[in-house]
């Protein structure tokens, strides 16, 4: 009975252990439990879309007006890959990097977005993956720290102790 109750509240994540069928959008490595390419995890669009989806509308300091962003909450990605490291380093196409303590990933954000107004984001539009906070919903996210962590063109996440 208790096991059945626990299963009912445990998050269900897609099986990410299969190799990606499409182009790789994100590579994850380090202190993770799920792998599909040696000691790394490679994810394509469909694999990311198979995870719990979330969306919010927000304005940013880099765009004009409010836009609707859809993707995977970073906390859900952390759980889906079985990350055990205390720090994550996220890298972009241009080698820009941010460090983010896993303990600071809040329930209401950030979002690893791959859709903007219902369309995949191109590299020119800061895609294909953009780590965004719901700036309009929480004044705490309108800070230099949150802005500096809003990395676009994200391609790699490394978890370390």
Q: Could you explain the architecture of this structure?
A:
- The chain is an alpha+beta fold.
- The chain has one domain (30-160): Oxidoreductase, molybdopterin-binding domain (Sulfite Oxidase, Chain A, domain 2, Alpha-Beta Complex).
- It is 17% helix and 34% strand.
- The chain contains 4 helices and 10 strands.
- It has helices at 2-9, 45-49, 74-81, 144-149, and strands at residues 24-30, 41-44, 54-59, 66-73, 87-92, 97-101, 111-116, 119-120, 130-132, 154-160.
- A 5-stranded mixed β-sheet has the order 2-1-10-5-6. Strands 3, 4, 7, 8 and 9 form a 5-stranded antiparallel β-sheet that branches.
- Strand 5 (87-92) and strand 6 form a beta hairpin.
- The longest helix has 8 residues, at 2-9.
- The chain starts with a helix and ends with a strand.
């Amino acid at each position: 009975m208790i096991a059945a109750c626990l299963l009912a509240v445990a998050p269900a994540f897609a099986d990410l252990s299969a190799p990606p069928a499409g182009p790789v959008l994100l590579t994850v490595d380090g202190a993770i439990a799920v792998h599909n390419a040696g000691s790394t995890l490679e994810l394509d669009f469909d694999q990311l879309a198979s995870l719990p989806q979330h969306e919010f509308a927000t304005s940013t300091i880099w765009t004009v007006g409010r836009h609707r962003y859809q993707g995977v909450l970073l906390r859900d990605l952390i759980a889906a890959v079985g990350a055990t490291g205390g720090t994550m380093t996220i890298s972009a196409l241009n080698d820009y990097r941010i460090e983010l303590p896993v303990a600071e990933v809040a329930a209401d954000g950030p979002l690893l977005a791959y859709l903007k107004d219902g369309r995949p984001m191109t590299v020119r539009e800061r895609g294909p993956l953009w780590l965004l906070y719901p700036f309009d919903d929480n004044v705490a996210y309108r800070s230099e720290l949150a802005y500096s962590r809003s990395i676009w063109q994200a391609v790699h996440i490394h978890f370390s102790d």
